[in-house]
Specification:
Blueprint: H1 3-28, E1 33-36, E2 39-42, E3 46-58, E4 64-78, E5 83-96, H2 98-104, E6 109-123, E7 127-138, E8 149-160, E9 164-173, E10 178-190
Antiparallel strand pairs: 1-2, 3-4, 3-10, 4-5, 5-6, 6-7, 7-8, 8-9, 9-10
Length: about 190
């Protein structure tokens, strides 16, 4: 199975997971109240802001060194207790293989991703699935990819509480014909 087929299959699985989670949440959630130490209160829709650090492994052995690091800011709007929409941006740095740096004079790649997504909690109020799509704007000017903007597709799963958000995701970059598996650790708060 080629890489494109694998990516399409993984993306389809993520969409089905989100759709199934959303249907399940709609069937089982009948009220909009939460219990806070024995008290009952209405769930307020609203914004959250999170600041995250990312570490990933790039799956292209021909060009990349394997390591990717980044930081991001995520704005989240809670539609309900179990569903949210997200907007994420930041900076990702992809390290180019040392041999290619010397031979082709290629430099590391810096990219600014801009992604919109949908987040649905599927197990209690802590575990979630997230699907994001957007664009990556390459900012490294001394690299063959410097003029390229890439489409980003990114399914993931995670755990979140009131302040901490830990997630794992796969990100596919159409222009680079590769992807990365990444871990994100973030601090978030309600606005």
């Amino acid at each position: 199975m080629n890489t494109t087929a694998k990516i399409k299959g993984l993306f389809a699985f993520g969409i089905l997971l989100l759709a199934g989670t959303h249907v399940n949440a709609q069937e089982t959630t009948t009220t909009t109240t939460t219990s806070v130490i024995g008290d009952t209160q209405n769930y307020d829709q609203g914004f959250r802001l999170g600041f995250g650090l990312n570490a990933g492994y790039v799956l292209d052995d021909d060009y990349f060194d394997g390591l990717a690091l980044g930081a991001d800011v995520r704005l989240q709007y809670d539609l309900s207790k179990r569903t949210s929409i997200t907007l994420t941006t930041g900076y990702d740095h992809f390290f180019v293989d040392d041999n290619l740096q010397e031979y082709y004079n290629a430099k590391d790649i810096g990219m600014i991703p801009v992604k919109a997504g949908f987040k649905a909690f599927f197990w209690g109020d802590s575990f979630y699935a997230l699907g994001e799509a957007g664009a990556g704007f390459v900012v490294s000017k001394q690299n063959p990819y410097a003029e390229n903007t890439t489409v980003i597709l990114s399914p993931g799963i995670g755990y979140a509480n009131k302040w901490i958000d830990i997630s794992a995701r796969y990100e596919h970059y159409t222009e680079f014909e590769t992807g990365q598996v990444a871990l994100r650790i973030a601090y978030g708060f309600k606005l």
